[in-house]
């Protein structure tokens, strides 16, 4: 597995709970790998377990949130301090579940605390898409995927025909994992 390969949902490693990192651990190499993987696979964010590292680190694509005034795009040992009562349902996808999308209910507003790459503690209160991305990435650190939380009736796969024209078809996690031809099953 190349360092920038993404661990798919069919690989049990994606389900491991990430360990908290001891303070002052050098994360430069890990973060660099995650940045590369996020760029190659065009992600909004990526969590360490998605590149096979079961530790509590995720990063987000800062460029996509120009108005957010982010203290850091690296989140080490993150914790949600507050979750708003109000929830919002919106579509999500995931690099570990390629071409699959579904509607997930998340808190509209959250306050998160984490350490940046230099182990400086920071807090961020945010809402809407950024709050959703942070909750999605945090779930990865506990081995949870959006397909576990999505409304099952809304899960769908985008399939491309020979001309590259996309069509949508319903998707279930179970049918995929039982597919004996899915080579990713043996990739743990
Ligand atoms: Zn994901």
Automatic annotation (TrEMBL):
For the biological process aspect of GO, one term held by this record is:
translation
Q: What is its EC number?
A: 3.5.1.88
Q: Which cofactor does it need?
A: Fe(2+)
The leader peptide range reads none
Q: Where is this region: Disordered?
A: 169-188
Give the UniProt keywords, A-Z.
Answer: Hydrolase, Iron, Metal-binding, Protein biosynthesis
- Annotated catalysed reactions: N-terminal N-formyl-L-methionyl-[peptide] + H2O = N-terminal L-methionyl-[peptide] + formate
> Which of this chain's residues are annotated to bind Fe cation?
94, 136, 140
- One GO MF term attached to the UniProt entry: peptide deformylase activity
Q: What class of enzyme is it?
A: hydrolase
Q: Which residues catalyse the reaction?
A: 137
The UniProt family comment states: Belongs to the polypeptide deformylase family.
User: What name does this protein carry?
Assistant: Peptide deformylase
Write down the species: Candidatus Terrybacteria bacterium RIFCSPHIGHO2_01_FULL_48_17
